[in-house]
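Homework help thread (please don't just give me the answer)

Our assignment gives two proteins as sequence + structure token strings and asks us to describe the second one. The first is just a warm-up. Here they are:
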Amino acid sequence: MGEIKYIRGDATAPSVKGTKLIAHVCNDLGGWGKGFVVAVSRRWPEPEAAYRAWHRGRASNDFGLGAVQFVQVEPYVWVANMVGQRGIRTGSKGVPVRYEAIDAALGGLAEKALELNASVHMPRIGCGLAGGKWSRVEPLINERLVKRGVAVTVYDHGEN
């Protein structure tokens, strides 16, 4: 069994061969514009447009906590919009991250990764604006993806 590979770099630009799935966490309000999605939108307009349309049509589709949407942006690159945070602000119910929703979305991500024979690339999902703790997210990734043989690379961005 493998393990999560950690590297410093940009998760929107994985430099490995083969099909790649770039995964990130979205909110359930249809908001897009802060955090990792800014980097995604700088490279490709399709994931944001698809997410906004998915949210607009939520009355008649599967949009909601735990859902995942796959958007092909290049011949061998897909973006996974995973709905894993409730709202966008920390309030009386705590931080926006919803670990059970991330867990469910990771299950869908694993299925797609296995179907496409793809590696998965992501920032520390749910731990930026969503306010989550990596110590809670990392075991979910190990359980849902790594244990099923999916290669996962987590990118830490920044100067350090």
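The one we have to describe:
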Amino acid sequence: MKVWSQKNLEDIRHEYIDFDGEWYLAFGRPEKSGCWIIYGKSGQGKSSFALQLARKFDEMGFRVLYLTLEMGACDDFVNSVLDVGISSKTNNIIYSDEATIKELDEYLSKQRSPDVIMIDSIQYFEQQGGAKASEIIRLRKKYPRKIFVFISHVDGREVEGKTAYDVKRDSFKRIYVEHFKATFIGRGKGGSRGYYIVWAEGYQKHWIENIKSDNDGTEDEETYQ
């Protein structure tokens, strides 16, 4: 058991992610460590947001490993990567479509291993790679200077499955994506605005249609972030 005195606690030096612009307004300056989770329904901008986040990390000089466990290198995934502005001329992001906890641990133990590990999705990581929440949390603690970002399916408005739920509880940065709007709902401080627009045209179209629906006298029972 390790204990800290008050002075030990005050002397801890944390490293932060120096987001700027829209990213800063949405998420502030998060600590450069720990687990993040991105979740939301299919077709509402979740994967596009994750790729935009990967691009932002790369632009800031972070080494990024993107585990595309669901889509692999299919045409749709490649097009999604290109759509957010990632290309071989502008980035050093690397990809893989398979990994177990053991393989990922071995890879991260190497020199100059990735600073950010993005896993799409946690459900596939559990089903295909056999990952359990306890192992994921143990890996996060083993590499305290790395950022683990998990993308998750949802059941209703909650992450799908016990593993995803336990990892969400361990995550300080929780980002819910709905109608192309990524909203910070995690513990700790976010940015002053608290959300990031993934795709402006899609977001605006949704709200225009929503307003039109209200004006037509129909009732919208959804509650939005």
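TA reply:
I won't write it for you, but here's a hint about the kind of observation we're looking for: Residues 219-225 have pLDDT under 50 and may be disordered.
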